[in-house]
Amino acid sequence: MAPDEWLPRARAHAERVARFAEPFVARRNAGKKHPIEDFLFTYYTHKPGQLGRWHPGVGVALVGHDAVERLAWKHCRALTDGERAEAGLGPADAPGASPAVVLDAPAYAAEREETIRFCGIILRGTAARPGNFGCFGLHEWAMAYRSEKFGIRHEYLPLRLGADGTDRVVEEHRIRCTHFDAFRFYSPDAVPLNELQPTRAAQRELEQPGCLHANMDLYKWAYKLGPAIPGELLMDCFELAWRVRTMDMQASPYDLTDWGFEPIAIETPAGKAAYVEAQRGFAAEAAALRERLTTALAPLEAELAAR
């Protein structure tokens, strides 16, 4: 990929990231919190600086002197003279030759084998299951169940229905969360109320495409696969996760009106209908991203199969 193609893409990626990362960094430096907009930078482990690095994906060499700094990046290497000849670049030591840098896919696959295999299992397994669209976001309510006894995760946010009203919503609904990383934050007294008891070991059998958290986690699988995932796909997953998190908190027991977010009152028929409509829309978007991630993962899986 020539500089006049990849440099604009790298700059566009950095600008796309900055719209989300710069306000977060400013808040963090000021000691302020945002209940929605901080989540992707605090719950997930990918730092803003890491997110800002654009990668072209597997099998794409970046040509030009601006690519040289990437030789210091983990898992990147210069093209061999044989690869340069195939690309019509000529030897690296020829006068005026342009550097060319590519992801070292075999080395990366060997080092990240467990992650690659797990991501493939999760992505394909989730895609193959039917979606559950009857959860109504009750995982957030279960986290706040009996808050007067256990407290709440977001202590600076008021409960929209108060502690007693929140408890009633939990007790009057069927709770069937399939996602371990939501279930593990349940209030202790809410744990036995969940029809399922998700575990990390069972994650590969339970993930399903209607789950908001499973769809947010597409961002996690994208960044865990790191430089093997094109930057545009990574940010598509990030932006979906951002919108899903927004809806997740609007449907939660917390009152976010002072933050500019109207509630989705899932304790009412109208609120349930609004939740399911949005949930189905997110599931459709996530299905397309899940397919793109699976496609991007395939060359790494091929490297593992060839070993």
TrEMBL record:
This is 3-methyladenine DNA glycosylase. It comes from Sinomonas halotolerans. It comes from the Bacteria.
